[in-house]
Write a structure and sequence with these properties.
This is Aquaporin. With 238 residues, this protein is mostly helical. It has ten helices and no strands.
């Protein structure tokens, strides 16, 4: 229960602040001017804060894809994965709901579709097609998991000296800097499901497209996890 609670709180925080920054960016000229770089830092810094807050309890996955990669690498059981994934998705939904309530109080109104939902195609940010979106999400999640699994493996100096949260958070930031204009960046099924579900009434397209942001991250995470399990990317401690 401690791990489930930690993952719920951590994913809630990631969605509230990361998607909150994205939502603020789309609220027009009268709102705070936030461009892609601060959004990337919002996701990265939120992760770093939670890594040091709840990392000692649950490992701070905050992401079913990360948990799936850890499972595929043989570092957690299937039962643990289910508990983590459920906690993360519920945390993301509550985070998106809290963001919805906060934005609803904005004077002059706001666009309820703008909850930081992921997407692709004409009319969405850079207008990238489905293939571009899928390839980016697979590759970006794969690289995120290479960082996560490599940094946290036994004996890694970064992990030993307590810098893993910072290193992973900065990796997440870099991924967002590159990918925000492509898909809004998911690499995290929970982060995509929360805003898509809460905003479904006003933005059904996001919910219709959310399948990609579940499947692609899991595919990328699986590749990374299997590489570590096979020993290809395992640290040589000799």
């Amino acid at each position: 229960m401690k791990k489930a609670a930690a993952e719920f709180i951590g994913t809630f925080t990631l969605v509230l602040f990361g998607c909150g920054a994205a939502a603020m960016a789309g609220m027009g000229a009268s709102s705070t001017a936030i461009d892609g770089l601060p959004i990337a830092f919002a996701f990265g810094f939120a992760f770093i804060a939670m890594a040091y807050g709840i990392g000692p309890i649950s490992g701070c996955h905050l992401n079913p894809a990360v948990s799936f990669g850890v499972l595929m690498a043989g570092r957690m059981s299937a039962g643990e994965f289910v508990v983590y994934a459920i906690s993360q998705v519920i945390g993301a939904i509550f985070g998106a709901a809290a963001l919805y309530l906060i934005l609803s109080g904005k004077g002059g109104g706001w666009a309820p579709a703008a909850l930081g939902q992921n997407g692709w195609g004409g009319g969405y940010l850079g207008g990238y097609d489905l293939t571009s979106a899928f390839v980016f999400e697979v590759v970006a999640t794969f690289l995120l998991l290479v960082a996560v699994l490599g940094i946290t493996q036994s004996g890694n100096p970064t992990h030993v000296h307590g810098l893993s949260g910072l290193a992973i958070g900065l990796t997440l930031t870099a991924i967002h800097i590159v990918g925000i204009n492509i898909t809004g960046v998911s690499v995290n099924p929970a982060r995509s499901l929360g805003p898509a579900i809460v905003g479904a009434g006003s933005n059904p397209l996001a919910l219709n497209q959310v399948w990609l942001f579940v499947i692609a991250p899991l595919v990328g995470a699986a590749f990374a996890g299997l590489l570590f399990k096979s020993g290809v990317l395992t640290r040589d401690e000799s």
